[in-house]
Design goal:
By secondary structure, the chain is of the alpha+beta class. About 50% of the residues lie in helices and about 10% in strands.
């Protein structure tokens, strides 16, 4: 197949005639040039179908050698240099549907497709079997059967399903299918219920969800489903604390969703969804201060916004609570926590997911792992009783009860007190006071 469709002799002649008609003030164009080129190659016949805005009488005046049409619906034909041009009327009514203005199929082309055994690819597929609406994925693309725009107009949910297949199978979407989805974006949002979109979304694998969301964004569908998430593409942030390089928050969100399944929870669908919402609060908290962007309390604000979105999308209450909890607390593991902070963190539900969101967040921003590694290292200390980590009396209290001045003796008594606690000899403040007094006398 030649790379340039317009270099094919039949199409080239057709375009020349179309230009002649247009110079006389009548719209004209070759119908579905790519398909016609394929038919010319398969059949060896240099026949070209042309749509024009004038009738047969006007055509006869403009092209004297023209003849009456012999094909179905063909109003005229012209044979020139071994090439046969068939003329069909095009829709010129101002009140008709806009997409009817462009003709994409003729009876002659459909008959040839039947003869070649290819007509099934261009007929309307069986809509009661959604997967039958797609060409076999072995072709290396996600492609709607028939004329994609026509197929899509009978079931706009097919657009979401096409994006889902493309994400899960890591396949490109065929150009004509893609442009049909983009053209129909508003109608998809108008006619497909949110609950149906989310049913398709739930079939997207966790590790593929970043690509699905990116496709929704590129097709201008995310802007209608979750405008708050799409708007993050307009919010800028410094890539990390050590850099002045800027990135938009949506790109960072996609990266975070991509990295989350690479951790210890590779198939965690809800975790990836929480990663998508983790920075949504930055849309409402962005503030420029001292030459840098700040987003104070974006985790709290983000949890409230996430709850509103998930209710709008008809999520179950327990799922909403889970995702909002992850958004609300996703910042906690970013800070270098004390023993008390680690205990508080460990007492929370879903700590493994919170750790994975933190890990993905740092990786997406090329950030520092210092605090993260510190918290990971000392997280096991939360399994140890508080009595085994800190003595019941601090240095000042020991000096108060023993009347000792500051010095190494106070540190020695403190260490002895902690060892006694670990041994189980002391369990409360009163016994600790008695212990340090006795130890001082020794």
């Amino acid at each position: 197949m030649p790379k340039n469709v317009f270099s094919e002799p039949g199409i080239k002649t057709g375009i020349t005639i179309c230009k002649a008609l247009m110079r006389n003030g009548y719209d004209a164009y070759p119908i579905n040039a790519q398909l016609q080129m394929l038919l010319c190659e398969k059949t060896g016949r240099l026949d070209v179908d042309i749509a024009c805005a004038c009738d047969a009488e006007v055509l006869a005046k403009l092209v004297p050698s023209i003849q009456p049409g012999r094909e179905d619906e063909s109003m005229a034909m012209l044979e020139e240099n071994g090439i046969t041009l068939h003329f069909y009327p095009t829709d010129v009514e101002n009140a008709s549907h806009p997409e009817r203005a462009l003709r994409s199929m003729t009876p002659r082309m459909l008959r040839l497709l039947n003869e070649l055994g290819q007509a099934h690819k261009f007929r309307m597929p069986q809509l009661d079997k959604p997967d039958s609406c797609f060409e076999d994925f072995d072709c290396g693309q996600v492609r709607l059967l028939g004329i994609p725009a026509n197929t899509l107009s009978h079931d706009y949910l097919l657009a979401i399903r096409a994006l889902r297949h493309a994400a899960n199978l890591d396949l490109p979407i065929a150009p004509q299918t893609w442009i049909a989805i983009v053209q129909a974006a508003n109608r998809i949002l108008d006619y497909v219920p949110a609950i149906s979109i989310m049913e398709e979304w739930r079939h997207v694998a966790a590790e593929s969800m970043w690509k699905f969301v990116q496709l929704l964004f590129d097709a201008h569908l995310l802007h209608g489903i979750m405008p708050e998430v799409a708007a993050l593409s307009c919010v800028m942030q410094e890539r990390n604390d050590e850099s002045d390089e800027l990135e938009n928050v949506f790109d960072h969100t996609i990266a975070c969703m991509r990295y989350y399944p690479e951790g210890s929870l590779p198939m965690d669908w809800y975790g990836v969804l929480a990663a998508m919402f983790h920075d949504i609060g930055k849309l409402y908290t962005a503030e420029r201060f001292a030459g840098r962007w700040t987003f104070y309390q974006h985790h709290r604000v983000g949890a409230a916004v996430t709850r509103k979105i998930l209710r709008r999308l008809h999520f179950e209450p327990e799922d909403i609570d889970l995702i909002c909890h992850l958004v609300r607390n996703h910042m906690m593991f970013h800070f270098m926590l004390t023993d008390r902070g680690l205990r508080r963190f460990k007492s929370m539900p879903e700590t493994e997911r919170l750790i994975e969101i933190c890990r993905a967040d740092i990786k997406a921003r090329d950030g520092s792992y210092t605090s993260f590694n510190h918290n990971q290292k000392y997280l096991d200390r939360t399994e140890t009783s508080a009595l085994m980590l800190e003595p019941l009396l601090n240095g000042n209290e020991i000096m108060e009860y023993t009347k000792l001045p500051p010095g190494p003796e106070v540190g020695n008594i403190r260490d002895a007190l902690l060892k006694a606690q670990i041994a189980g000899l002391i369990s409360n403040t009163e016994s600790a006071v008695e212990f340090v007094k006795r130890y001082t006398k020794k």
